[in-house]
Amino acid sequence: MTGDEYKRAQEAWVSDCTGGSTFEVITICFSSVASHILWSSLSRANIKISDSYWAQVLIYCLPVFACQTLAADYAHLVSIGLLTASALVYNLTSESASASVSPLPEAKTSMFKSYLTVYRGCTMLMTCIAILAVDFPIFPRRFAKVETFGTSLMDVGVGSFVFSSGVVASRAYLAGNSSLSKSKALVQSFRSALPILVLGGLRLVLTRGVDYQTHTSEYGLHWNFFFTLGFLPAFVTLVSFLQRYASFGVLALTVGALYEAVLQYGLQTWILEAPRVDLLSANKEGIFSFFGYLSIFLFGLDSGLVVFKKYKADDDRCPTGRQLIKRAVGLWIVYMAWTGTTDFAVSRRLANGPYVLWVVAFNLSLLAALVFVDHKSQVKGQGPSLLFAMNQNGLVTFLVANVLTGLVNLSIRTLYCSAIVSFLVCSIYIVAVTLFPWVLWTKFQIRFKL
């Protein structure tokens, strides 16, 4: 097989995928909640090994990796196993209600939430695992990005990345950064976006330079996910000027509704069927799906205001979790009613209304579950140090994962690797991706802010 033939085989491997069930996606992703319950049980019992690098790799990385590959058909059993181990630890050890993990400097701020460490870290981890594993035969095709309509694990991954970024960005508005003048706010947003846009440009140049395979219908000929992330700050800043008139939730619904209306009045047909004859049509998926991601980011901002809202210290009813789960239930009802009684279907390629609702409802459910776990465990401090370190250098970790994915694909023909080779290569990759931010932060206190 020549290089060109193998490139076409790689593109065919990730093309025309139809996805799987929403329930299976939830089952796989909620294994991370079971992992956190196990870690919390170990920490509450003052078992110090729970904060070592290798222990956290086994607790957080191995289960979700197994659920995405070799144990894909038995993800529920993985979660049951983790919960069983948690119960054994809880019952066989002398628990300490004051158990804690030593906080790193940033964890001492009042805006710090340990469950966000787990939520963002696990989202990053699942995304990084999938972007390489998808190129190996041990990764089920139903988990790969859907060609046009349907739901899959990788489809919810990109949306979750955007939503979690919105949740964290809400701290700036609560801290008073939104009081900047409009011109200064725009300049600041462009400055924060510039490094990400440069990364997007470098990725485009490098992939073209080495003739790397591209799935054109994903974002277009030139667009990539870094461009989507890079343009978000400026657009969010522009939309946020309207916050005095409407909440972020209302703005998110407005952006999503307007975009969905335009899709139904001809844009959807044009995106799916029009030939690529100029720069706009060549990148139609990336350019127009951006507005769906903008809606998701605004929903994240609105949810972040709930997460960082101050409640009474003696309120033991877990008000944050209750608020998040109420929103999640409401959105799930709307989503199921919309997709179950009409011809509308989820499309990550379009980032349409059903996709936005699905991503937001899913993330609110996952975040609420982690809030309740932390509330019940009463483990104070930074949370798992591995996930904390990954969050400190989030975009750098994502960049390293992309670079390593490219190097692996250029070095070996992943499509024809055996299950054993696939598992070993992906395992080494996971260690490299997680060890990099671990060493940067825990050993040298280095944080790259992009």
Automatic annotation (TrEMBL):
Q: Where are the transmembrane segments?
A: 114-136, 156-174, 186-206, 221-241, 248-267, 287-308, 329-347, 353-373, 394-412, 418-441
InterPro entries per the UniProt record, alphabetical: PIGW/GWT1
Q: Which GO BP terms apply?
A: GPI anchor biosynthetic process; protein localization to plasma membrane
Source taxon at top rank: Eukaryota
The pathway noted for it is: Glycolipid biosynthesis; glycosylphosphatidylinositol-anchor biosynthesis
Q: Name one GO molecular function term.
A: glucosaminyl-phosphatidylinositol O-acyltransferase activity
* Entry GO CC: endoplasmic reticulum membrane
Q: Which locations, inside or outside the cell, does it occupy?
A: Endoplasmic reticulum membrane; Membrane
Alphabetic keyword roster: Acyltransferase, Endoplasmic reticulum, GPI-anchor biosynthesis, Membrane, Transferase, Transmembrane, Transmembrane helix
The Enzyme Commission number assigned here is: 2.3.-.-
Top-level EC class: transferase
Quick one: where is this thing mainly located?
endoplasmic reticulum
Is Nucleotide-binding set as a keyword in this record? no
**What's its membrane topology?**
Multi-pass membrane protein
Its job: A acetyltransferase, which acetylates the inositol ring of phosphatidylinositol during biosynthesis of GPI-anchor.
Q: Which family does it belong to?
A: Belongs to the PIGW family.
Protein name as it appears in the record: GPI-anchored wall transfer protein
Q: Which organism is it from?
A: Phycomyces blakesleeanus (strain ATCC 8743b / DSM 1359 / FGSC 10004 / NBRC 33097 / NRRL 1555)
- Source organism lineage? Eukaryota, Fungi, Fungi incertae sedis, Mucoromycota, Mucoromycotina
